[in-house]
Write a structure and sequence with these properties.
Chain B: InterPro entries: SusD-like_N, SusD_RagB_dom, TPR-like_helical_dom_sf. Chain B: This is RagB/SusD family nutrient uptake outer membrane protein. Chain B: Belongs to the SusD family. The complex is a heterodimer of chains A (about 1000) and B (about 550). Chain A is mainly β and about 1000 residues long. Chain A has 2 domains: about 70 residues, Carboxypeptidase-like, regulatory domain (Immunoglobulin-like, Sandwich), CATH 2.60.40; about 900 residues, TonB-dependent receptor, beta-barrel domain (Maltoporin, Chain A), CATH 2.40.170. Chain A has 12 helices and 54 strands. In chain A, about 50% of the residues are buried. In chain B, the strands form 3 sheets. Chain B has a two-stranded antiparallel ribbon. A two-stranded antiparallel ribbon of chain B has the order 2-5. In chain B, helix 2 packs antiparallel against helix 5 and helix 10 packs antiparallel against helix 13. The radius of gyration of chain B is 30 Å and the shape is globular. Classes of the chains: A mainly beta (about 1000), B mainly alpha (about 550). At the A-B interface, strand 25, strand 27, strand 31, strand 32 and strand 33 of A face helix 2, helix 5 and helix 17 of B.
């Protein structure tokens, strides 16, 4: 019936048109009509309509209707609208021209993953940056964080050092917190990941545990489809209590409909040290000792402790490290069921001998549709197995050091291998040592090769989601995720090594188990009212539970080194110090809702509320509400910009919201009694267990609150040839969780309180340009720039807090930094170096009292940069592709703790080597190493991070062509060039040297320069 | 009838089902909200106090940490009492022991409130007090066997921590008089030193009443510990009741300034001497060897085991890197001028390492016996490792300068840096010398005082070298002799600072220290504590 009527109308229309042709010819007249979306049928307001070749133009009204005067039947009307294909219509004799615009493919593709859902790029009102795999240089990546480095304005990612799998320091728009974590929340396929260190701590050579490992390395970068970074509160408030540091959403690749596709990606990488630290060689060292003997600074007997060798210890522990990675993925599916499965093997050698990691990752993603597509099921499963071969080194080693500090201090006149030690004792295992045990300086090659330190981590992450369209526009989704990791650490310090000798061999075994469970259920409603009012309403509930368990056993005094940690019972002594277990658990419960509204795709408004409850906080403070509101105004849709045709899109966004942080330990609001080893008493020559308060309970503990304001401009000119974002933000963090000394007597000296305030203000710019766009030649340019100003606003009762532990011999109790209200985190504080006078270092007497003491210390530098930038270009020329990625930071200081300790000639008094630069220093031979502005260096840098050249074989002929869909070969160079005035290995450092300490470099594991040859094949 | 009933019941069941079917989302939601908004914290490896302190064993476990904290004082209280005197100096050797100049600052009396060591000492002491207060508060509310004795034990330990605070910082807050916990809103104010003195005194006297004569377990405190502490407290009454501005920096601060204090010092020393539980060890070294828990002379000691964290690390502080495995720290030395005061015939001088050192340490030894055989050792720069008394430049010393103190001999069974020697806070010998000193104040030099000193000397001189009354015509002369005797007897036993202040010699100049101002008679209140507690007052002069 209906169809019949349509036909009739159409026929009538055609008849009317035929009849009217002759009447209206060649006269200006009015044409009217409606413009609608071809896919939805909805009317489109604001569509640009011009008469081709004239200045006559108009736009559609809110109902998509328009009226325009045309000169005659030969006139051509051009209908254009952002996000839609342009349409041209010859008017002819028509009086009514209705047009249906097809959305452009690009815009359809610009779907951004946001918290608990997806949005069209243009509907996003918060500050969101997204990266899809296509944008990423086709180079070599071992972990997903490397895909983000330098690509998102405001996001800095610094690996602690160059050790394979080293931990990361991820900061978005500066750190908000001082005591609590500053790491953004990471959400993989909708499941928030508890980004805790999985690898159990070990006993370092000097007791300090080596740094934690990168927990993100469980994700195979080849499995990543897109990464989205939510920056401001408008975007992150939906994650409430965990949104303060930003959110990183990672979506993994899903299967696509079609026949089976097989993809192989593989590469081989060779890495070498980027830079060498210049210490004295054997000859130079002998010459220096001789000079000092002549000068009377050393006794003649100093010759007796010299060796005859000429060993470059740095070279002896470094190598050309090889890495190989193989990735195989299958995908395919029908219209109902799609799947993708992948497996990755990575074997990465460390630059330092006897270190590296091996990893096997498997993933299966599948989805299925039922009930005519109304029910959608999705399964994502991944499991990874990592085997770390760890190097015994510490970042904050003191008097005794690990492999890397011994590289600097071990005398170059000593051999690596020998029959006897310097003190005449027989060399164990053939390794030369100064003495058999009684020495703090040790053969670094022996240490690297003798000490066994392995970590194995198995982590499985899975989620199952079901989505059901209930009624038109209303969708229910349930997502259940589980994340379980088991990690073990095994260490053995053999008797043969001076490190283990003092214990008669020492074995440590530790196992940690971490599990988390997530349940989410939410309803989403999408609808359009009165044609103009587009609404999306979301409401849901989430439950998270986290549990960690660990136990450790330590044995010493072994009969033989042969069994090591594999037979800890063969140690005569089981030591309480390393024998322990613990378990803790926490919960997070949340209700959340979000309303997205837009009027005519011109005015946007988003409101978010999240109500979070955390078990970590005190009774009465467990729940908190996190609101955010944001809006956007699409300027380009306004009449006054309508005529400016090079402006394709221009949007102004403003948002304000409150987010929180709960990243502190468990149970801090409770009074706890614990049995620690140092609480034991000895009575009657026996150890008695002690239970005592191990914390100072704070029942009033509550969330850290970050209020953030963001204003931004999204621009798109010349149809995407130039696009990007400009943003300004202010983030204020209040109720800072800060550890403060409590009035004594107290069972522990400090407790966590909600005190203090920090502020971050900043400006961000991102720009993408399609500089050349020809059929066979494309040049893409990308730039990100950001400048953040961090400030500690208040520290409660503290005038300042000292931090930034200075490492090395003779440095205990010394700090390089202070947190001071009014100054940024990472402010260096110390004496001002004024030169060397009569062999002694002189420092500025600020208060002129004739003494150099605490009162003469002042601000001598800042670790946070003035600005950071990243530049990339991708060039496609036929089958060739080229990409270049440069990033840098400007206006930042680094404390070269390595130089402080090792660029000191006094080391020769202890028969230790030092950096050659010290030879030119006028310091007396017995002048100690003293921290001052002398060791604060400009750490600005520009790094050519990645250069890749690739060639893609298309339409391969012959038998090969029948099987191979695509093939690409590429070479990548990483860390090719580092421009910096900094004199150490690398200015990009992050050692954990105390509360919120930044920019301290001490005997780090060097970053390599690497070359990769890779191939990807599609079948 | 029956049929209808059945029918109805079927109907009902069907409607119940339907209602259930219709209501299930709400039911599910209700269950979900009920169980899944529970944010109660579950503890596993720690316990909350409301579930503890129920059995005798739990009470002993709560007592242990109060004792355990004494080990911390062997670093912090000890450092304050040693390194700020002419007994101990930690020279900077190359970069070693520079440590932001803190060791030299301590030695030169450059006391800055911000120096971490002062805060360390303060926190160590008050942590012990907080643990004691916590247990006392619990004991007040529960019933356990021997409650009074345990209470007395805890109060005595707490009094000891306060005694150390009284000694180092003087004017400190007192918590535990009527309140056991600190109200963070209204933290405790500084109390004048005389009030702290009174508090320590009354606590010790009260605790003494309920303490046993023999310890429940060796290593725990007895009545005699209270007496020893009281004897020392009274002897120092002329200092402990005064603020730093009132102490005579250049003359003896006698217990006679405080009514009856000297007499009380004698009485409490006598309590110990006459208790019948202690006697001077025939072999003086028995007090310091790894098996010194067997010494009959020790009144109050922290027991140690050669186990990680439970041992004593004094040998590590002083020995050269090449003298032990693991490598010691080559730090603490005695000043030449102090070393030279020792009589060559005094056995007690053998605790010092001087001259060439040899490779093989003997088992169970003390001082110079230990490194007298095997190959000669060298320092790291290739010099012979021969310790010299003189330190030419304390800011730039060589590795071999400075005589080392090996009073607590290395334990052959040591594990890492942990040695099993017990650390004695009070020995019977001190009761003899306290009594002698107090008697001298009361009566001037007499035979009884000389006799007491000679008993202490008898075992360390062969042939004997007793003091003669005739050589000490004045109080001053005998005081001088007693101060020296205390130096010889108690080197490295953390007595020197207290003794020098009492004798008015703490501020005088010596080799590496100019004359220091009067303020140093009390240590500065740590800056971190002033920040945390606005009711605290800095000591005069800082």
């Amino acid at each position: 019936m209906n169809r019949m009527i349509h036909w009739k109308k159409w026929l009538l229309g055609v008849g009317a048109w035929l009849c009217s042709v002759s009447v209206v010819m060649a006269q200006p007249r009015m044409v009217t009509g409606t413009v609608s979306d071809a896919s939805t049928g909805d009317p489109l307001p604001g569509v640009n309509i011009v008469v081709l070749g004239t200045t006559t133009g108009t736009t559609t009204d809110v109902g998509g209707r328009y009226q325009i005067e045309v000169p005659g039947p030969e006139a051509i009307l051009v209908f254009s609208f952002v996000g839609y294909e342009q349409v041209q219509e010859v008017v002819g004799t028509r009086l009514v021209i209705n047009v249906r615009l097809q959305p452009t493919v690009e815009v359809l593709g610009e779907i951004v993953v946001v918290g608990y859902g997806v949005q069209r790029r243009e509907d996003v009102t918060g500050s969101v940056a997204s990266i899809s795999v296509d944008e990423i240089n086709q180079g070599r990546y071992t972990s997903p964080d490397q895909l983000l480095q330098g690509r998102v304005a405001g996001l800095t990612i610094v690996a602690n050092n160059g050790e394979p799998g080293a931990n990361l320091n991820i900061r978005l728009r500066g750190g908000t917190s001082i005591s609590a974590s500053n790491q953004p929340l990471i959400v993989i396929d909708g499941v928030p990941i508890d980004n805790v260190p999985l690898t159990p701590g070990g006993a370092g050579v000097n007791g300090a545990p080596p740094p934690p490992r990168n927990p993100l390395s469980l994700i195979n970068p080849n499995d990543i489809e897109s990464i989205t970074v939510l920056k401001d509160a408008a975007a992150t408030a939906i994650y409430g209590s965990r949104g303060a540091n930003g959110v990183i959403l990672i979506e993994t690749k899903k299967g696509r409909q079609g026949q089976l596709q097989v993809d192989y990606d593989g590469y081989v990488t060779a890495s070498t040290p980027y830079r060498k630290m210049d210490v004295l060689n054997g000859e130079e060292y002998r010459r220096f000792v001789e000079q000092q003997i002549q000068a009377g600074n050393l006794p003649a007997s100093a010759r007796n402790v010299l060796g005859n060798a000429n060993t470059d210890w740095e070279e002896a522990v470094m190598r050309t490290a090889l890495t190989q990675s193989h990735n195989l993925a299958f995908s395919g599916g029908t219209s109902q069921t799609r799947y993708r499965a992948s497996v990755n093997y990575l074997n990465e050698e460390g630059l330092v001998i006897n270190s590296g990691l091996e990893r096997l990752t498997g993933r299966l993603n599948a989805d299925h549709q039922a009930l005519d597509g109304r029910l959608r099921l999705q399964l994502n499963l991944t499991s990874s197995f990592t085997h770390d071969n760890l190097l015994p080194y510490n970042q904050t080693a003191g008097f005794e050091g690990g492999v890397l500090s011994n590289v600097f201090q071990m005398n170059p006149t000593y051999p690596i291998h020998a029959q006897t030690n310097l003190d005449g004792t027989p060399a164990r295992d053939g390794y030369f040592e100064i003495a058999d045990g009684r020495t703090s300086v040790r053969n670094p090659v022996a240490m690297a090769e003798q000490v066994q330190d392995f970590a194995k981590t198995t982590r499985s992450l899975g989620n199952l989601a079901a989505e059901l369209d209930l009624i038109a526009g209303l969708t229910a989704r349930v997502n259940f995720g589980a994340d379980r990791a088991q990690a073990s650490r095994r260490q053995y310090f053999p008797q043969e090594s001076p490190v283990g000798n003092e214990f008669g061999g020492r074995a440590l075994l530790r196992n940690r188990e971490h599990s988390s469970m997530t349940f989410q259920s939410y309803l989403t409603y999408r609808g359009t009212f009165a044609r103009q009012h587009n609404v999306e309403l979301l409401g849901g509930y989430e439950f998270n539970e986290y549990m960690t368990e660990e136990f450790g056993v330590e044995g010493r005094d072994f009969v033989t080194d042969l069994t090591g940690y594999n037979a800890v019972q063969s140690g005569a002594l089981l030591v309480k110090e390393g024998t322990f277990s613990y378990k803790d658990k926490s919960r997070l419960v949340s209700f959340f809702t979000r309303l997205n509204y837009n009027f005519a795709s011109k005015y946007y408004l988003t409101g978010v509320l999240r109500y979070d409850g955390s078990s970590r906080f005190g009774e009465g403070n467990k729940w908190a509400l996190f609101p955010a509101v944001s809006g956007a105004w699409r300027l380009s849709a306004e009449p006054f910009l309508r005529g400016v045709d090079w402006i394709s899109d221009l949007r102004l966004k403003v948002g304000y919201g409150i987010t929180g942080s709960q990243e502190i330990g468990n149970y801090l609001s409770l009074a706890q009694l614990g049995a620690r080893q140092d609480l034991q008493a000895v009575f009657n020559q026996e150890a008695f267990t002690g239970f005592a308060p191990i914390n100072y309970a704070n029942p009033n503990l509550q969330w850290e609150e970050t209020a953030s304001f963001n204003v931004g401009l999204d621009y798109n000119f010349w149809n995407g040839k130039l696009s990007g974002t400009l943003e300004y933000y202010v983030k204020e963090t209040d109720k800072l969780l800060l550890e403060i000394p409590v009035p004594q007597p107290a069972p522990v000296p400090t407790r966590i309180e909600n005190i203090g305030k920090t502020r971050n203000r900043g400006f961000e710019l991102s720009m993408d340009a399609l500089a050349i766009d020809r059929p066979n030649f494309n040049v893409l340019l990308g730039l990100v720039f950001s400048a953040n100003r961090n400030e500690v606003v208040s520290l409660g009762p503290h005038e300042f807090i000292v931090t930034g532990v200075v490492s090395g011999r003779g440095q205990s109790g010394n700090f390089a930094q202070r947190l001071i209200p009014g100054e940024p985190v990472g402010t260096f504080y110390g004496w001002i170096f004024e030169g060397v006078e009569n062999g002694r270092q002189k420092f500025r007497d600020l208060n002129g009292d004739g003494r150099i003491d605490d009162a003469d210390r002042t601000i001598i530098g800042k670790a946070q940069p003035d600005f950071t930038y990243g530049f990339r270009t991708n060039i496609y020329w036929g089958n060739l592709d080229f990409s270049l990625f440069i990033r840098g930071e400007q206006g930042r200081d680094v404390f070269n703790n390595t130089a402080l300790v090792y660029q000191t000639k006094s080391a020769v008094l202890q028969n230790q080597n030092f950096l050659k630069a010290a030879l030119d220093d006028p310091d007396a031979l017995d002048e100690p190493a003293i921290f001052s502005s002398r060791w604060i260096e400009d750490g600005s840098f520009l790094r050519v991070d990645n250069v890749t050249i690739g060639y893609t074989f298309r339409n391969l002929g012959g038998v090969l062509g029948q099987h191979v869909r695509r093939a690409r070969v590429y070479v990548t160079g990483q860390n090719l060039l580092l421009l910096t005035p900094y004199s150490g290995y690398d200015p990009e450092v992050n050692i954990s040297a105390g509360l919120a300490a930044l920019g301290i470099d001490y005997a780090q594991y060097p970053r390599p320069r690497s070359f990769t040859l890779g191939v990807s094949l599609g079948f | 009838m029956m049929q209808t009933k059945q029918h109805r019941s079927t109907m009902n069941r069907c409607c119940t089902y339907r209602a259930l079917l219709r209501g299930w989302p709400f039911l599910a939601l209700a269950i979900l909200l009920g169980s899944c908004t529970n944010l109660e914290e579950e503890t596993f490896s720690v316990v909350t106090p409301d579930k503890f302190y129920r059995t005798d064993r739990e009470i002993t476990a709560a007592l242990a940490p109060i004792y355990a904290q004494l080990r911390a004082l062997e670093w912090s209280y000890w450092t304050m009492s040693q390194v700020t005197t002419d007994e101990t100096v930690v020279p900077t050797r190359g970069s070693d022991w520079y440590d932001d100049r803190r060791w030299l600052n301590l030695h030169e009396h450059n006391f800055l409130p911000s120096q971490v060591d002062f805060n360390g000492a303060w926190v160590d002491l008050y942590t012990g007090i907080a643990r004691a207060n916590g247990l006392l508060q619990t004991l007040a509310e529960i019933d356990v066997a021997n409650k009074e004795q345990i209470e007395a034990e805890v109060r005595l330990l707490r009094a000891f921590y306060y005694y150390c605070l009284l000694d180092l910082f003087g004017n400190v807050p007192i918590v535990g008089d009527d309140e056991f916990v600190v109200d963070p809103e209204n933290p405790p104010p500084t109390e004048p030193r005389s009030k702290v003195y009174d508090f320590v005194k009354s606590e010790l006297l009260a605790a003494r009443e309920n303490l046993p004569e023999t310890p429940p377990l060796p290593g725990r405190v007895t009545k005699w510990v209270a007496d020893a502490l009281l004897a020392s407290l009274y002897l120092n009454a002329g200092v402990f009741t005064k603020n730093s501005t009132q102490i005579n920096p250049n003359g003896y601060n006698s217990c006679m300034d405080v009514p009856n204090a000297c007499q009380e010092a004698v009485r409490h020393a006598d309590n110990v001497i006459n208790s019948g539980y202690f006697q001077l060890a025939d072999n003086w070294f028995q007090n310091f060897l790894p098996d010194n828990h067997n010494s009959p002379e020790i009144i109050f000691a922290t027991q140690h085991l050669p186990e990680p964290g439970l041992g004593m690390n004094f040998v590590m502080r002083t020995l050269h890197y090449h003298q032990l495995t693991p490598s010691p720290w080559n730090g603490h030395s005695i000043l030449a001028e102090t070393y030279n005061l020792f009589d060559d015939d005094d056995l007690r001088k053998t605790i010092f390492l001087v001259g060439q050192q040899y490779a093989e340490p003997r088992g169970n030894c003390i001082g110079r016996q230990c490194y007298s055989q095997g190959a000669p050792l060298q320092d790291r720069a290739g010099n012979p490792l021969a310790y010299t008394p003189e330190i030419n430049n304390v800011f730039a010393a060589t590795e071999y300068e400075g005589v080392r103190v090996l009073k607590y001999g290395p334990d052959p069974a040591h594990v890492g840096g942990d040695h099993g020697n017990d650390y004695a806070w009070f020995r019977l010998a001190e009761m003899y010398l306290i009594k002698a000193e107090a008697l001298n104040e009361i009566n001037g030099p007499n035979a009884e005082s000389i006799n007491l000193i000679n008993q202490v000397r008898a075992r360390v001189f062969d042939p004997p070298k007793p003091l003669n009354l005739a050589d000490y015509p004045s109080k001053e002369a005998l005081r001088e002799a007693i101060l020296k005797e205390r130096l010889f007897e108690f080197t490295w036993e953390a007595k020197r600072r207290q003794d020098l202040i009492r004798h008015g010699k703490y501020t005088r100049a010596y080799q590496f220290k100019p004359q220091s101002p009067q303020r140093v008679l009390l240590l500065p209140i740590p800056q971190a504590q002033l920040d945390a507690n606005p009711n605290l007052q800095q000591n005069p002069g800082y």
